[in-house]
Amino acid sequence: MRQRSVKIRNSAAGGTVTGQEKKTLELKISGMHCATCAANIEKSLTRVGKVDRAEVNFGTDTARVEYDTGHATLSDIERAVREAGYEVVHEQATLKVGGMVCATCVETIENALSALPGVIGAQVNLATEKAKVSYNSSLTTLEDMRKAIEDAGYQYLGLADQLTVEAEEESRHRDLDDKFRRFMVGFAVSIPLFALMFIPLPISMHDLSYLMLAVSTPVFIYVASPIFRAARMAAKNRTLNMDVMYAMGTGVAYVSSVLGTFGIVLTHEFMFYDTAIMLASFLILGRYLEARAKGRTSAAIRALMGLRPKTALVITGDGEIEVPIEDVQVGDAIRVKPGAKIPVDGTVTDGESYVDESMITGEPIPVLKAAGAQVVAGTLNTNSSIIFRAEKVGKDTVLAQIIRLVEDAQASKPPVQRIADVAVSYFIPVVLAIALAAFLVWYLVVGSTLLFALTALVSILVVACPCALGLATPTAVTVGVGRGAELGVLIRNGEALETAEQVNTVIFDKTGTLTRGKPEVTDVHPFGIDEKTLLGIAAAVEKNSQHPLANAVVQKALSAGAQVGEAQRFNTHGGKGVSALVLGEEVLVGNGAFLEERGVLLAQDHESVVRDLQKEGKTVILVAVGGTLAGIIGVADTVKETTAPALEILKGMGMKVAMITGDNRLTAAAIGKRLGIEEVFAEVLPGDKAKEVEKLQGAGNVVAFVGDGINDAPALARADVGIAIGSGTDVAIESGDIVLVRDDLLDAAAAIQLSRKVMSRIRQNIFWAFAYNAALIPLAAGVFYPITGYTLRPELAALAMALSSVTVVSLSLSLKRYIPPAKRYHSPEV
User: Fold this and answer.
1) How do residues 109-166 score in pLDDT, each as one tens digit?
2) 206: how many CB neighbours lie within 10 A of its CB?
């Protein structure tokens, strides 16, 4: 899409000339299904002020709008499209940004990007150093974004998805090495300078001051230059950030020393050379430690990216060729040797091998893959060579989708972040005011020495730090979401994290969620013959039927080792049952009505067995041989092994648990009773499940709905938190707010436990960030000096500032070791 901009100059009365800019904008629109839609959108667009022309192309789903930027904006035009009942599709770009050090940097970059004419929204994550931008490329290009970032004083490192793991690691190590060299040089010089102040020397203070000036000036410039460079860019952009405060603090210390050296206003008493260098060194040390810790917060996403193999062995007419992964096409035949990773998603066509899928599903036991089985990129082929057909490549693979979801979640902001954002916006002006007030009070009101007042000023400027506030939420979200991915719990965004913590009611779909979703034989009652014989006779007839209940009987007979013979003259009877000849005897398999029609009557004790099975919600199959009842078989959709413990864990967390199903009330009540679920919604059509969720919400509940992500889409969307259960590598990534990779209900409980842990850690981080500033700023200002005779030295203030951010990031990093109690259910020690 291309931008076209023309200037139209109009002459007003009296010869005045005004300039108006007209632009042509292209929009991608979704939801159109006929030419009338295009006409409706055009009509809506022409009603926007100063839109000269609007052309909507139904064939390409695009709209081309020429408008006057002085009277209409991109937001006005998009609003007109939405009011007509359609949606505008935005392009997305995730940019890697370098040079951010605090929460005000985030705000500066977001403002710089949002000011571009085609940018709809920009979200910057300090922890991952990424900016996620929604934009319209006909108005704003990636080059415009690069320029906006660099003009704001930061580094544009390129598109995140084009930056390889190796390149990103190299860039990070280069930055860490630079910071390490600077603070090591700073300490190597500042500590001896500090010692010189206390060692008797055979030279005068006058000569010593010139020596210190000569030694410290190049070192100070080298160590502090990143701080002053960032402060200059902030001043140029008329923003206040931490670099401005740090530059003021270290600058005051250094300039005071220079003035004292030459006897200009100040005396030799103001020798702060060692303090100035030490301050800058501690600040750089803080950023070094913070950058190292922040790098570890993204370890999970780098591990996922590292799963992607770089090449694939493609089978062609000329043999096998190793090609870059980017060149693999859908339909290619690919060989994977033992010990190699699966390069793309596909279906096995030849060979069989055990594939380790633990990196995707968290399931430690390798899975046997034979012809027809699905394999996914990033998993490890363990013991034998297989050939498969490529079906999903590039961004369409399961691994790529998981990486994208985790990155999006890490870039998102939970609502609790607003507390920190508001605090940060006021922080620097308030601190500057406190620093100036402290200086004036100590020097002019109390009458302290200029040295003391200046020390208080510098200490306040250096100790104050919104960095900890800015890192409190994004680091915890980044580590928490990454930890979730390692555990097979994919969390879509920060809002889902915060809402999941508040959930008090969990409603489960029955079929395929609480139960396995396929019938199995649960009870066998033979009369006059043994169990194996009964199953063999029934299976001989049922194996000719395609009914799920028939298949359940056949599978039970085979697993029990029964001899399954052949049947002749097989016949079906109107959904009531089937009949056939087995070993010359007529065998009837069906319900009570069918056997009664064929003259087979049930004794009282037989009827008692039937009633007991029906009370348990099971389907009853009767088997008659030669006109006599030979046995009764009970069939049910069996409950998964982890269902009961998962429900117990949720109840133990104070949750209300409910079940929803389309089954009849008797069956639903039986399963509900067996699982200890008191609230059961039965005979609910798939489309009405969302209404039941809405009723629970109307009663004041925060509801999580757990379903399979396919049939339960409306209910998942309606719930406060939709938890979609996957089935290993075949997972619908887009199906819920939280997606469970494994078909295991314990992971639903683990997801809520993880959400609670992450939100608890965010609150702890915010508390410590506030507490740190609330305690140390008054100490630096000398509030406690009249009582204790102690105030905070600038060097210690810089060290405390460095430790504040590191503390918050370290608290977040502790989430990497967190194992939700629900996940421990499987471990041997539990």
Assistant:
1) 998 999 898 898 898 888 788 898 988 888 888 899 999 998 888 888 888 766 566 6
2) 10
> Residues 228, 230, 235, 238: what is their CA dihedral angle, to the nearest 10 degrees?
-160
CA 87 – CA 84 distance, rounded (Å): 9
Residue 421: φ, ψ to 5°: -60, -45
CA distance 681 to 238: 60
In angstroms, the CA 572 to CA 547 distance is 11
Cα–Cα nearest to 747, from 680, 656, 639, 821: 821
What backbone phi and psi angles, to 5 degrees, belong to 137? -75, -10
Which among 121, 432, 420 is positioned nearest to 247, based on CA atoms?
432
Contacts of 33 (CB under 8 A, 6+ apart): none
Contacts of 536 (CB under 8 A, 6+ apart): 557, 562, 563, 564, 565
Q: In residues, how long is the chain? A: 830
Dihedral sign, CA of 65, 68, 69, 74? Answer: negative
Cβ atoms 696, 507 nearer than 8 A: yes
CB–CB of 589/622 below 8 Å?
yes
Half-sphere exposure of 134 (CA within 13 A, CB side): 12
* pLDDT, average across residues 332-337: 94
Q: Which of 6-10, 19-23, 25-29, 807-811 has the highest mean pLDDT?
A: 807-811
pLDDT of residue 207: 79
Average pLDDT of the segment spanning 516-525: 88
Q: How many CA atoms lie within 13 A of 97 on its CB side?
A: 37
Q: How many C-alpha atoms does 548 have within 13 Å on its Cβ side?
A: 8
Contact yes or no for 549/559 (Cβ under 8 A): no
List own/partner pairs for 171-180 with CB under 8 A and 24 or more apart. 171/98, 172/291, 172/295, 175/98, 175/291, 176/288, 176/291, 176/292, 176/295, 179/284, 179/285, 179/287, 179/288, 179/291, 180/288
- Tokens 């710089």 locate to 112
Question: Band of the pLDDT at 20, cuts 50, 70, 90?
Answer: low
DSSP-derived secondary structure letter, 26:
E
Distances from the Cα of 190 to the Cα of 184, 279, 704, angstroms: 10, 9, 58
Closest by CA position to 430, among listed 440, 442, 438? 438
Find which of 33-42, 288-297, 672-681 is predicted with most confidence, using mean pLDDT.
672-681
Burial classification of residue 162, based on how many CB atoms lie within 10 Å of its CB (0-12 exposed, 13-18 middle, 19 or more buried): exposed
Between 288 and 579, name the one with better pLDDT: 579
* Distance, C-alpha 294 to centroid of its chain: 16
In 3D space, the residue among 732, 659, 86 whose CA is nearest the CA of residue 398 turns out to be 732
pLDDT in tens, 211-235: 889 999 999 999 999 989 888 887 8
Q: Compute the Cα dihedral for 537, 540, 544, 545 and give only its sign.
A: positive
Nearest-angstrom CA–CA distance, 572 and 549 = 14
Those residues with Cβ within 8 angstroms of residue 815's Cβ, 6 or more apart along the chain or in another chain: 476, 479, 480, 483, 757, 758, 761
Look at residue 618 and tell me whether its pLDDT is greater than 60. Answer: yes
Spatial separation of the C-alpha atoms in residues 498 and 762, rounded to whole Å:
10
Task: Compute the distance between CA of residue 830 and CA of residue 823 in angstroms, rounded to an integer.
Answer: 10
Highest mean pLDDT among 170-174, 185-189, 824-828: 185-189
Residue numbers annotated as active site: 509
* Contact yes or no for 272/484 (Cβ under 8 A): no
| Among candidate residues 814, 724, 801, the one with its CA nearest the CA of residue 760 | 814
85 dihedral zone (left: phi>0; alpha: psi -120 to 50; beta): left
CA pair distance 594, 609, nearest whole angstrom: 17
**8 Å CB contact between 260 and 458:** no
For the ranges 395-409, 487-501, 733-747, the maximum mean pLDDT occurs at: 487-501
DSSP β-ladder status, 505-509 and 703-707: parallel
